[in-house]
Inverse folding.
């Protein structure tokens, strides 16, 4: 890190903090260990941020902020009665690329990414048709 620290521990009970740590971890060169002390009281546990980032692969780790915001976080509720497990099951490579776009500030999301998000939403909501359910007008 900038001050030379190679081992860091963060304490939080907010899943949004975990998402932020995991999504930015691949960009933190020189940081060997990053742990999150999660929870409170007897339910506290240590979570290895690099372990999660590695399990997700770098592309999904980078897109995690967009995925989390799109599928439900502190500021957006989940939709279609589906949680994160259903959302992960609906992911494909094009959706991951679209979530990477959403994870970084952009003025406009490219139309191919919007189409990927549309298909992801249809899959997540359990619609098994190739018919476009939503139309984006620009």
């Amino acid at each position: 890190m900038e001050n030379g620290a190679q081992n860091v521990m963060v304490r939080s009970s907010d899943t949004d903090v975990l998402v932020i740590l995991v999504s930015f971890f691949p960009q933190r060169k020189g940081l060997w260990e990053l742990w999150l002390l999660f929870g409170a009281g007897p339910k506290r546990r240590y979570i290895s941020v690099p372990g999660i980032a590695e399990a997700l692969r770098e592309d999904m780790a980078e897109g995690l902020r967009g995925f989390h915001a799109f599928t439900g976080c502190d500021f957006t509720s989940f939709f279609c009665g589906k949680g994160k497990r259903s959302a992960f099951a609906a992911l494909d490579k094009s959706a991951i690329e679209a979530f990477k776009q959403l994870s970084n500030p952009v003025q406009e999301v490219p139309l191919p990414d919007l189409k990927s998000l549309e298909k992801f939403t249809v899959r997540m909501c359990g619609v098994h048709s190739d018919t476009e359910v939503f139309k984006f007008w620009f």
